[in-house]
Design goal:
The structure holds 2 protein chains of 2 kinds.
Chain A (H helix, E strand, L loop, with lengths): L4 E2 L10 H7 L15 H21 L7 E4 L2 H15 L5 E5 L4 H12 L3 E5 L9 H7 L4 E7 L11 H11 L3 E4 L11 H4 L3 E5 L10 E5 L25 H16 L4 H18 L3 E3 L10 E6 L4 H10 L2 E2 L1 E2 L2 H4 L6 H5 L4 H4 L2 E5 L6 H21 L3 E2 L4 E2 L7
Chain B lengths: L5 H8 L12 E7 L4 E10 L2 E10 L2 H14 L4 H5 L3 H7 L8 H18 L7 H5 L2 E3 L4 E2 H11 L4 H8 L9 H14 L17 H22 L2 E9 L2 E8 H4 L3 H16 L5 E4 L2
Parallel strand pairs in B: 7-8
Antiparallel strand pairs in B: 1-2, 2-3, 4-5, 6-7
Classes of the chains: A alpha/beta, B alpha+beta.
The structure holds pyridoxal-5'-phosphate and FE2/S2 (inorganic) cluster.
């Protein structure tokens, strides 16, 4: 195979050719400013509004004006949380989970330093939220609950409807980081009863640097930035028209292709069961049941994740790892550690994430080259005895 | 993606000397599966010469490459020669490593040290007993190791120390201790001569030696003596003999001959050359 087998779609996705076609005119002849008082800009404004409608449909929002375009998932997360806190100044308690993306977690850490009290809901071995903990943490002082819809590392889906109901009962603003859900599972913001919902274009085949924040009608929130009237003053600045048009088109295609996610699920399951059946030193990280269809996270024991990635890369396969080495930090993924995945497997965890462009041939190729890679690394490993095909006794304190 | 050199890539793709040695004369084990990298080094030693070296590692690409490089570098060397290899040498052999991966080279050097201690029959028990206080609990990094790596690589910041030893890279509760060690170590280094002074251990030219002696006396020794109201004058330098005169409070001090001469000599040996001799003139 000479083309890259791209199995890292939770990191970013390929721009769908249809999306590219849709945005190109706005980088060329249709360069008008949507705010201008002439047809040249006015026509463009209509395309921006069409994109808003396309995104509203993907999220199940009633009103187009509930959709605000931003500069990415990170910005949407920050806007949702900081904007809410700016409104509810007297509430000093914030809730999230232990397995959020850094776009939320690092913001919470910053807020803690500024004097906020933060509760982080733990997860069990399968990555499922401790709902009792969440319920007990909520109080009159709680300014916001921010929980992700699906986890980027394991694909585990959280019970957002249940959380939505709890928050609504207590009148606590509820934000969802839905970056890893968009395009993978159906989203219905009304049914969930959330106030805020963040997504990111490049995770569903739009270009990078485009995000969306859904703001339910009537939600109290202040903008992060001040400027012109664009996005109803909630996100001022001349619009990134090509990016917005692309995000709208990608949202339309994501909704249309949702049924095709079942094909992705079948491919993912094929890869997963192929791996689990072939190796004795491997375990699945994350619940098998409540998961987005495109993600599998497997932990190879006694070998190190970055080394696996480098060897996969040699074979033209792109994946990612929660190992310490590959991330540049010195600790394995906070998600796997929160789940209590033993160190023996956390350092050797590999995430494969598929997309609707993944082919059966690519999956079979991946299954076929893995044994060579894993066996080679086991042979190098001091914790594995290749002669007996067993692990050596290791002293593991965790 | 890390920016690995071609040499590193070549070595993690095709590592040399992977495996174990039956009846090895020396074995050195460092790291653990918890830390995320570990290395076991096996040596065959005959007549003080390392005849064969093999390794097994649990680690990333640069750990595999560093281990492979180490085994290639020491095979055929005498034990004394091998002992002189620093983590810097491993890095140089690899044509460089990304800063955040420097700890892989340190791990190689540590494994070698342990193996040679094992060969000499020294009992290598847990870190605490033989290697001093554990500064970083998360990665089990000791005070002497941190100091050694600071000196050998001329490290300046906590971030450097983390890159080279991993200490401080997890919970961060040891960072203030690392800062204290760094402050102490930076003070020890003569400012002008810098950490490079003794590096390489090439014989010094006369001029270079004189320069280093002068710098060490003015930057390191004199401030110590001045604290107690004393002073020192550099009278002459003849080869490795350094003639000094003690002044002020020192001059009348009866113990000067023993203590102060030793202090000056120790500092000069530390920063200039191992066989400097100090002679006191009055
Ligand atoms: C769950 C989650 N939230 C937020 C983000 C950040 O999105 P962006 O890269 O668009 O800023 C990501 C992307 O890595 C993500 O996976
Ligand atoms: S004790 Fe050093 S990082 Fe935790």
């Amino acid at each position: 195979m000479n083309r890259t087998v791209y199995l890292d779609n939770n990191a970013t996705t390929m721009v769908d050719p249809e999306v590219l076609d849709a945005m190109l005119p706005f980088l060329k002849e249709q360069y008008g400013n949507p705010s201008s008082m002439h047809d040249f800009g006015g026509d463009v404004a209509r395309d921006v509004e069409l994109a808003r409608k396309q995104v509203a449909d993907l999220l199940g929002a009633d009103n187009d004006y509930e959709i605000v375009f931003t500069g990415g998932g990170t910005e949407s997360d920050n806007f949702a949380i900081l904007g809410t806190l700016a409104y509810f100044r007297d509430r000093r308690h914030i809730i999230s989970s232990k397995v959020e993306h850094p776009a939320v977690l690092n913001l919470y850490r910053r807020l803690e330093r500024e004097g906020y009290r933060a509760s982080y809901v733990p997860v069990d071995r399968d990555g499922n939220l401790d709902m009792e903990f969440l319920k007990k943490s909520m109080d009159d002082d709680t300014a916001i609950v921010s929980i992700m819809h699906a986890n980027n590392e394991t694909g585990v889906i959280f019970p957002v409807e249940e959380i939505g109901a709890l928050c609504r009962e207590r009148s606590i603003p509820f934000h969802i980081d839905g970056v890893q859900a968009a395009g993978k599972i159906p989203i219905d913001v009304k049914k969930i009863q959330c106030d805020l919902y963040s997504i990111s274009g490049h995770k569903f085949h739009a270009p990078k640097g485009m995000g969306v924040l859904y703001i339910r009608r009537g939600t109290r929130i202040r903008p992060l930035m001040y400027g012109g009237h664009q996005e109803r003053g909630r996100r001022p600045g001349t619009e990134n028209v090509p990016g917005i048009v692309a995000t709208g088109k990608a949202a339309e295609l994501a909704l249309k292709n949702l049924p095709a996610e079942e094909r992705v699920r079948a491919l993912r399951d094929r890869l997963e069961s192929g791996i689990l059946a072939r190796f004795s030193n491997v375990q699945l990280n994350g619940s098998k049941d409540a998961r987005v269809p495109n993600t599998t996270n497997v932990g190879f024991e006694y070998i190190e994740g970055e080394a696996i990635l480098l060897y996969l890369n040699e074979k033209g396969i792109a994946a990612s790892s929660g190992s310490a080495c590959s991330s540049g930090s010195l600790e394995p993924s906070h998600v796997l550690r929160a789940m209590g995945v033993p160190f023996t497997a956390a350092h050797g965890s590999i995430r494969f994430s598929l997309s609707r462009f993944t082919t059966e041939q690519e999956i079979d190729y991946t299954i076929s080259v893995l044994p060579e890679i894993i066996d080679r690394l086991l042979e190098i490993s001091p914790f594995w005895d290749s002669a007996t095909k067993q692990c050596r006794p290791v002293n593991i304190q965790s | 993606m890390w920016d690995y050199t071609d040499k590193v890539k070549d070595l993690y793709k095709h590592p040399k000397n992977v495996g174990t040695i039956d009846n090895a004369d020396a074995v050195g084990e460092v790291g653990s599966i918890v830390c995320g990298d570990a290395l076991t080094l096996y040596l065959k030693i005959e007549d003080n010469i390392i005849k064969d070296a093999k390794f097994q590692t649990f680690g990333c690409g640069s750990a595999i490459a560093s281990s492979s490089a180490l085994t290639e570098m020491i095979t055929g060397k005498t034990v004394d020669e091998a002992e002189k290899i620093t983590n810097r040498d491993i890095v140089d052999y690899l044509g460089g490593l990304p800063e955040q991966k420097m700890h892989c080279s340190v791990m190689g050097r540590e494994a070698l040290e342990k193996a040679l201690a094992n060969w000499r029959g020294e009992e290598v028990a847990s870190h605490e007993e033989t290697e001093g206080e554990v500064i970083c609990q998360c990665f089990g990094v000791t005070d002497p190791l941190i100091r050694k790596v600071i000196r050998e690589n001329g490290l300046k910041t906590v971030e450097d120390v983390t890159n080279y030893t991993k200490a401080g890279g997890a919970c961060g509760s040891c960072i203030h201790k690392i800062e204290d060690i760094l402050t102490e170590e930076l003070k020890r280094q003569p400012v002008a001569a810098g950490p490079e002074a003794k590096k390489g251990r090439l014989p010094l030219s006369n001029i270079k030696r004189m320069q280093l002696v002068e710098e060490t006396i003015s930057d390191v020794v004199r401030p110590i003596l001045q604290k107690d109201g004393g002073n020192i004058e550099l009278v002459d330098i003849d080869g490795r003999k350094v003639m000094v005169a003690l002044r002020g409070a020192c001059a009348n001090c009866l113990v000067s001959d023993v203590t102060l001469k030793n202090l000056v000599q120790e500092k000069l040996r530390e920063f200039v050359e191992d066989d400097i001799e100090v002679i006191e003139v009055r």
